[in-house]
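Our platform keeps sequence and structure together, in a single record for each protein. Nothing more is needed to write down the fold, since each code stands for a local backbone conformation. An entry from our holdings is shown next, in its original layout:
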Amino acid sequence: MKNIQNFLFHPFQLCKSIVLIALLWTLVGSNRLSAQLFKAGIVGGVSFAQIEGDDVSGYSKFGANAGGIVAVDINEKFQLSLEILYAQKGAASGISGRQQGLVAAFKIQHEYVEIPIVFHYKDPKGMNFGIGFAPSRHIRSIFIDDFGMENPTYFEGAGEMGDWDFGGIFDLAYRINNFSHVNLRLTASLIPYQERFSVNRNQITGQFNNVITLRYLFLVSALREKRL
């Protein structure tokens, strides 16, 4: 059981598995109708994150967002997609705050397996607009202090970190062609994933993950369909 858990929630193993599944979906599938209905591919990009409810503002935490996607065309205008991603969230001190001596340099990194489900509207002019829901399974969290060292004591005495983070999604994508998209996504926690004491508010407050991601989507099966 422990080996299964390590496989499911280890980010690198997960991402490799997703890519393999997407490729197998493409290579094994011989039914042309299935290829037209279902599209599988890989996605990767960079994230800009902040924690709402802490004492620092700004999307200053850079991270990774990568995994696999399967999409089904409901009709010519609407599409439903399911993704399995390795997603980094968290917060970091901004450059201006460090320069002014307002805050010490730090970085909080939360790592998740994220499973977004998104409903898309496909505009005829090449844009996709989507809204969705993203449950995320927490893998681990690290705190890097102003000396560049991990400080595990940061999470001691705080409210218990939730195993899951539930986010809402607003999604915008430009279709370069049928198999290649550029994507901008906003994901925001719908409920607090943790409660901590806020110095600015002088009270315990809920914390929410807010993330903006810029990504590239490559739909392998759509490329294969084009070549048929």
